[in-house]
Amino acid sequence: MTRDDARGDGTGSDANPDLLREAREAVVEYAPALADLTPARTGNLSVRDGDAVAVTPTGVPYDSFDAADVPVVSLEGERLAGRMAPSSEVPMHTGIYQHDRPGAIVHTHSPWATTMATLHQKLPPIHYMIAAVGREVPLADYAPYGTEELAANVVAAMAEAGSDAAILANHGLVVTGPDIETAVENTRHVEDICRLYLRASAVGEPHVLTDEQMATVEERFESYGQQPDAE
Question: N or C, where is the chain less crowded by C-beta within 10 Å?
Answer without folding.
Answer: C
